[in-house]
Write a structure and sequence with these properties.
By secondary structure, the chain is an alpha/beta fold. It contains 9 helices and 17 strands. The strands form 3 sheets. It has a 9-stranded mixed β-sheet with strand order 2-1-17-16-14-3-12-13-15, covered by helices on one side.
């Protein structure tokens, strides 16, 4: 498929730079069989049924954006910007760096009080760093020297501040390792979760550590030529048993966010622990997920392709045109949609 088929005009003023407060006050566009309903996220319990199951991604965003200098080599000490995106082991991370041409295997980069050695350098601005500490000690060190990796379109418009540390984290975040938030989950508050539970809506958690690849544009002209970056995820046997029990009793499985959906589809009904680079485009047959709650995505993005696969390309183009006309807010800090596949 042509990437251009997933293009649309998005006015800059529709891109949110801050979230709405309270979180559940964000708009919610319900999309079913080409019909659109304008609600708010707080109305979500009324759109679901007793026995339905919400599946959340409980990954926790870490301060994975680092600024430092190359040291140890004679001559200059160029500034280096790094964005960690995939943990290899307790002490090693893959990262996108700028300017990559300034680094070679064996170089040391000093990120404040934390150093890192370049173990390997790829061809597309990606390197593998090994740090002198590992595990929880490395996580603590990153908290001291790193920044929350906000999407580039936000950081180009305003400075990051302390508010982003809480705004860009779900209230149920638990498993550290993401470098981007599972943004559909940002709309949930403890009160909204309790309201869902009070109406008989069940919940379950999976873990997908969202990588920085989610920020990368699709540069290929054809979707077949685009390569997704791998992300680590895990779906337990207990979670799968819960999903199967819900389906057996007539309930529906609603993924909260494209990250939850991609992980559940990668697992394909079996326990899963490892990396996935699943790329979902129109024509994909969904095996697990019956509904999807997600934010509004950018033109030509892999995530817009995914929602087109889920609810239909024509339907989603019409829905996005409706959202723009009704001043919905797009992307990470924006409003939400609830999608049901065409019947």
């Amino acid at each position: 498929m042509r990437v251009a088929d997933f293009d649309f005009e998005l006015p800059p003023e529709n891109i949110a730079l801050r979230p709405i407060t309270p979180r559940e006050a964000a708009k919610l566009l319900v999309i079913q069989n080409s019909a659109f309903s304008d609600l708010h996220v707080g109305d979500l319990p009324s759109q679901l049924r007793r026995g339905d199951l919400l599946v959340f991604n409980n990954t926790k965003v870490i301060p994975a954006a680092l600024s430092g200098v190359r040291v140890g080599r004679l001559g200059t000490t160029p500034k280096i910007e790094a964005l960690l995106h995939l943990r290899i082991d307790g002490a090693s991370w893959k990262a996108f760096v700028k300017p990559a041409k300034k680094l070679e295997a064996g170089d040391t980069v000093q990120f404040g009080s934390l150093s890192a050695v370049v173990e390997e350098k790829g061809d597309t601005g990606e390197v593998t760093f090994r740090f002198p500490v590992s595990g929880a000690d490395l996580d603590i060190a990153l908290t001291q020297v790193g920044r929350v990796p906000l999407p580039p379109y936000i950081e180009s418009k305003r400075a990051q501040d302390l508010q982003d540390r809480s705004d860009y984290q779900t209230v149920y975040a638990k498993e550290s390792g993401a470098v981007a938030a599972p943004t559909a989950g940002l709309h949930f508050t403890p009160e909204l979760i309790k309201a869902c539970q009070a109406t008989g809506i069940e919940s379950e958690f999976v873990t997908l550590h969202v990588g920085a690849g989610t920020f990368l544009p699709v540069k290929a002209d054809d979707t077949r030529d685009h390569k997704m970056h791998a992300e680590w995820g895990e779906v337990s046997l207990e979670t799968l048993n819960h999903i199967q029990a819900v389906k057996a009793s007539g309930g529906r499985v609603i993924a909260v966010g494209t990250t939850s959906l991609r992980l559940l589809e990668s697992a394909a009904g079996k326990p899963f622990s490892g990396t996935t680079d699943i790329f979902i485009t129109p024509g994909y047959k969904f095996n697990t997920v019956d509904g999807l709650m997600t934010n509004f995505h950018l033109p030509r993005s892999t995530l817009f392709m995914l929602v087109c696969a889920f609810a239909g390309t024509d339907t989603m183009k019409a829905a996005y045109a409706h959202a723009i006309a009704q001043n919905y807010r797009f992307y990470s800090y924006g409003d939400a949609s609830l999608l049901w596949p065409a019947q």
